[in-house]
Every structure is written in structure tokens, then in C-alpha cells.
Amino acid sequence: MVRSVGQRAVTGSEEDPRVVGLRTAVARLRRELAALPAELPDRVIAEDELAALAAMVTHGVPEPPRLRRSLLLVAGAIGSVSALTRALTDVRHAVELFGQPPRG
């Protein structure tokens, strides 16, 4: 059974499905980045931000502005590495589930 409470859905386990989805997407991208043999000049930045994202989802519902900042840093660090495109897209979609930035 899933019921909505404010902006989060609550299941019997009380874990927000957005958090589960983001955790899964981040873990996949971390694995694929680690397995990538190519030299990336900003690999350490991507790895650090993915570790930060992983830590955020272990402490409940993360703050959307911080998620978006980390996503931008990861995307910039990875660049256009085609082998990581799908995994990065999955992380982006998972971050988007936490809400869009306010329009100013």
C-alpha cells in the first residue's frame, strides 16, 4: 500500500520511493564510472559528488537544490562520455523527481 503524505509517498517500509530510485541510479553510475578504463581529467570530482549524493540519500529526503548542484558537477565532470550517458540520464531523472527549481 502506498499513500501520499505531502510531497512524499509512504510505503509500508516508510521509505520514499524517490530516495530509493536515486540511490539505485547513483549506485549504477558509480559502478559504471569505476569500471570505465578511460582517463577522465575530472574523474575525482565526479566520484566525490556521487559519493556525496549516495550519502544524502542515506539520511532521508535530500534537499533539491543540493541534488541539482551535485548533478551539475557530475555531468560537467563526466562530460560527453557516451558509455555513461544512460546511467547519468537515470540520475538526472531521479533528481528531477524531487521537484523543479523555482522559476524566477
Can you walk through the features of this model?
The protein has 104 residues and is mainly alpha-helical. Helix content is 58%, strand content 6%. The chain is built from four helices and two strands, in the order ββαααα. The protein has a two-stranded antiparallel sheet. A hairpin with a 2-residue loop joins β1 (3-5) and β2 (8-10). α1 (17-35) packs antiparallel against α4 (85-96) and α2 packs antiparallel against α3 (64-78).
Describe the structure using short key phrases.
mainly alpha; two-stranded antiparallel ribbon; globular; disordered N terminus
Question: What does the secondary structure layout of this molecule look like, with pairings?
Answer:
Blueprint: E1 3-5, E2 8-10, H1 17-35, H2 43-56, H3 64-78, H4 85-96
Antiparallel strand pairs: 1-2
Mean pLDDT: 87
Shape: globular
Number of helices: 4
Radius of gyration over C-alpha positions, nearest whole angstrom: 14 Å
Percentage of residues in helical conformation: 55-70%
Report the count of strand segments: 2
Distance between the termini: 37 Å
Largest sheet: 2 strands, antiparallel
Strand order of the largest sheet: 1-2
Summarize the model shown.
This protein is 58% helix and 6% strand.
